[in-house]
Write a structure and sequence with these properties.
single chain; 484 residues; alpha+beta; Arc Repressor Mutant, subunit A; two-stranded antiparallel sheet; 8 strands; globular
């Protein structure tokens, strides 16, 4: 046997150190209006050097005096904070790497650390999403790496209702994995919480939930779902009774059991839309027919550094610990003030670029919305794409056509035969308008809508029309029919 030997060695490694200031910058940048106000008020309580000014107390003299005090205090190297680089938010992707310490910490920077960094940069402050909920379950599922890859691919293919948007053969081709692997993964996904997730349509969703409740395939509710689904959605109780050879009371009880199921299990993870929206920006047409961008700053407390504490720092009457404490609080306060200003400037710059790219929307409405990506805006204003993602998260624009989330303006689209770009939201608006104007006795089929859109030089598949119609909450053709 070989004797176990111990030896000491010295090596230099890199470790990931995310500075507290960077975390605070991200928090301020991505915070919606109400959260930002709460954050500022908390900092006011914890930092004695900061003070809030009432709006009506701010004057030109106050601003000039503050600037003079800042310039005079810069004579001391310890108080010269104006040279700090507060463009950290604009160079977010590069600056995170600059936070890595070159000191030996005993922990090397690995590919896993890089993956966590990317996840951090691309994550937004949101409640747990459906995908996150399912991924957590997938990570705990005993299976091979390739099976988990197929499972994660299917999770990424779910819509807001929790239904699969792609058939398994297409998933297998795109992921370059065996079809059998996806078939197994699809069955595993159906066992996840919430019940009914990973199914292909409403019928499959309800049947899966009944199966999870222990209902036998020969039970009346499952037979009605499997063999007489169209009669079920019309509640044709007499016909269902005749076809199943059951009494009306039994049919009504079976329908009641089905009615207690969740038709859209993924919806419970959707953000709560029943909330008061405070727009961060208003875009409006002034009396001179010029578009204006108004940034709402009313909810942000006006901050400044307390002059008394600044004066104390310039004197030699403080002990070393007292001076270090006040210096740390001063740095924190200055960084907060500059971070808030940077946040507001970034939001305003993004809004002006949105107005430039989506002017037709602001003039004419949703039907004129054009395809646009975050990367386009990022290149226009010279920031990282993740900065755009964070700056627009949970924030809203008030326009002449209503209040919309910033993310609404970033959308994919189609090209018409004439080469004009049309966003998918504009196509949805067209579909909704066509159905609203249809004859209730002879509603348009999905194929008829495809044909009508082709007349407008928009080529779109029937399946896509059905997908958009369902996203708009519009019933199928046979369920929209109304007889006079």
């Amino acid at each position: 046997m070989c004797a176990q030997e111990f030896q000491q060695s010295q090596r230099q490694t890199q470790s990931q150190v995310l500075a507290p200031q960077l975390r605070n910058s991200l928090k301020i940048l991505q915070a919606p209006a109400t959260e930002l106000r709460t954050t500022i008020l908390e900092e006011l309580q914890n930092n004695p050097i900061l003070e809030e000014l009432p709006l009506d107390s701010i004057s030109v003299e106050d601003i000039s005096r503050d600037k003079e005090e800042d310039s005079s205090s810069s004579e001391s190297d310890e108080l010269n904070f104006d040279a700090e680089d507060f463009s950290i938010l604009d160079r977010l992707g590069e600056d995170v790497r600059q936070q890595f310490s070159e000191e030996n910490s005993g922990q090397s920077f690995t590919s896993e650390d890089e993956a966590r960094r990317e996840h951090f940069l691309n994550s937004l402050v949101l409640e747990t999403s459906l995908q996150q909920h399912l991924i957590q379950q997938a990570e705990l599922t005993p299976c091979s790496d390739t099976e988990r890859d197929a499972l994660l691919y299917l999770i990424g293919s779910l819509d807001d209702h929790g239904f699969l948007t792609e058939n398994l053969p297409n998933c297998a081709l795109q992921a370059k994995l065996p079809l059998s692997l996806f078939q197994t993964a699809a069955e595993v996904l159906k066992t996840f919480d919430p019940p009914g997730i990973g199914t292909v349509d409403l019928k499959d969703c309800l049947d899966t939930q009944l199966d999870r409740l222990g209902k036998d395939p020969s039970s009346l509710p499952r037979r009605i779902l499997r063999d007489h689904f169209q009669l079920l959605v019309r509640r044709r109780i007499p016909e269902l009774g005749r076809l199943t050879d059951c009494k009306a009371e039994e049919i009504q009880e079976a329908i009641a059991q089905i009615g207690r199921l969740d038709p859209a299990p993924g919806k419970r993870f959707a953000p709560d839309s029943n909330t008061v929206v405070n727009p961060d920006v208003t875009v409006y047409l002034d009396e001179y027919d010029q578009w204006q961008v108004h940034l709402h700053n009313d909810y942000i407390p006006k901050l400044r550094i307390n002059a008394t504490y600044k004066a104390m720092l310039t004197k030699n009457s403080l002990s070393k610990n007292e001076k270090e404490f006040l210096l740390e609080r001063l740095r924190s306060g200055k960084f907060l003030i500059n971070s808030i200003e940077q946040r507001q400037q970034t939001i305003e710059r993004i809004t002006r670029k949105l107005l430039e790219h989506q002017r037709e929307f602001f003039e004419d409405g949703v039907s004129k919305l054009r395809p646009l990506t975050m990367n386009t805006i990022a290149e226009d204003i010279g920031v990282h794409e993740t900065t755009i993602s964070r700056a627009t998260a949970n924030k809203y624009i008030r326009s002449p056509h209503g209040t919309f989330p910033f993310k609404y303006f970033f959308t994919t689209g189609y090209k018409s035969a004439a080469g004009d770009a049309v966003s998918n939201k504009s196509v949805q608006e067209m579909i909704a308008q066509l159905i609203e104007d249809e004859n209730p006795a002879k509603p348009f089929s999905d194929q008829a809508i495809v044909n009508l859109l082709q007349e407008k030089d928009i080529k779109i598949a029937r399946r896509t029309v059905a997908k958009y119609r369902e996203a708009l909450g519009i019933l199928a053709t046979n369920l929209r029919r109304r007889y006079p």
